[in-house]
Amino acid sequence: MIARVCIVGCGASKAAAPCEARDLYTGPLFRAARAHVERLGCPWWVLSARFGLIEPWRTLPPYEATIADGRRDVETWSRLTGICAGTLGGLMHGTYGRALGWPAEVVLEVHAGAAYVEWLSEIVASSPAAKHLRLTVEEPLRGLEIGQRLHWYAARRDVPVVAARVDGWDRPGSAPPAPRQASLFGRVA
Predict the structure, then answer these.
(1) Which pTM does this prediction carry?
(2) How far apart are CA 48 and CA 34, in angstroms?
């Protein structure tokens, strides 16, 4: 079985107060990517320069950080990379794996800028989960500028969805159990 998981890169424009990750990023590109992946019905995460891979229903505060900031700080970069690798490991074990039907292969469809895709690809290449799963990274918008990406999303608004919806994935009542560490998945104390 092949499972599809979408990853949406964070954005610079943010809400003024803490809110769910899916609502925190207010720019047109994030909103278009979010609408696209939600229409697909597959599980999705936000790839945040400050918090790593975040479920869309996790509450986050507004922040100022970029992937370049994280790469300059080795400790921060290691923490974020560890969070992302742990989340990917959850595709094989635990609640995420169970929700996805214990897939043998996971396709990560990434809707983010090149630096974020590069970072995620490095994590996938070194992830212990990659030894158990065939993890592949797809980048449907590779090489497209922001305006072209917005056009790509707009052109797909009315395309029928063929992906199977994962029931209950994106409702907080059916969310995986709370993380064991306060910082895991970007949970804010």
Answers:
(1) 0.77
(2) 14
